[in-house]
Design goal:
It contains 16 helices and 15 strands. It is 41% helix and 17% strand. It has 412 residues and is an alpha/beta fold. The two termini are 39 Å apart. It is globular, with a radius of gyration of 22 Å.
Length: 412
Amino acid sequence: MTGTFDFGSYRTGRRALGKAALGSLLASPALLGRKAWAQEVIKLGFNGDLSASPSAQSGRAAVVGIQAALEDLEKEGGVLGRRLSLTIRDDLSQPPKSIQNMSDLIDNEKVAAVLGPTNSGNALAWRHIPNQKRIPVMGCIGSATDITKPVRTGADNYMFRVGSVDRTQVVSLMAYAKKNPRTGKIGFLTETTGYGQGGLKDLQEVAEAQGLTAVASEKFNVNDTDMTSQLAKLRSAGVETALVWAQGTPIGQLMRSMDKIGYFPIVLTSWAADNLSFINASGPQLAEKPIFLRTVSEDRTPHQQAFFDRIRPRLDADSAFSFAVHGYDGTMLLARAMQQAGSTDGASVRAALEDLRGTLQGYAKTYERPFSKTEHEALTAADQRWTCWRNGKLAAFSDDVVAGLQPGDFKG
């Protein structure tokens, strides 16, 4: 999927305005007196999966959020007196394609910043490119811990994120496991993608920090539909709590496999379980087994509800809302940084993001100096929300363990 989003258009499969239409628009008397506004468009890019993997729904939702932010920025007069447009590239969940898209957006489309990607493995495959070319990237979906780490100690880092972070989720889930008197023996189940194996690394390291030991660790492919052999090994090892790191569809297939052999340990899983692909694969009853974390609670604030009502017709499902929130907030933070820097120069925008002044009321939170030179994650452990599925819909989750968690429990 390749295209450009311009205000007033939602077509993402091609350029929203052709050259002839654009020329006609710029010739209109109302715009001739606004030369900078008309001629110097600030181009943003989106590079992520919109059609191929179980997480494509999240990519499409992020684009909806970015588009909503661009609508609001136009109402505010743009950024630096200039309008903004969005150039979209679908990476089909393929690292080589995602690398190609990133080079195209930066070198040919001359974007000022990029948002995305959908899949963590793709971000890890190309994050050296924006760092070399000094173009800020605002992650809004992929959650692998290493995405926002600098390429080397002390190096300028152009990778930022408004979204969940695997390490943050794992720390919280492991704290829950440690405090839960029903946990018993723990085991790991992870998919073999970069996302799954990055999560496994976090699971292993955080378990050690929390003083927990997994008695079994099994892997499965993202397209597997039968994980009974892996589950049998966990059951044989006496696992009573399974920590799962995978995308939505394979988590759903895992729940079906549990049902096949009648083995249901406590399931603590990645936030990919909020994806519609998960409940489509598992069915509504089995979907109620896992608990997980999100950055937007289903107990929405009035501010969040108003945004939800505005964009819901463009989303595939209610469950995709958090990714639209990340896309919106990330775009607004980029715009604020450009305004503060007085420039779209990549190095200047990066420096402004690392020292962003004032506050910004977003939809995930109100941001006040969300980044620094050494911290490029806007959302923290305090911004995580416990979630589950109930009656075919996402719901806020709480129990005595969640209620009893204290700041000192989050180690790792």
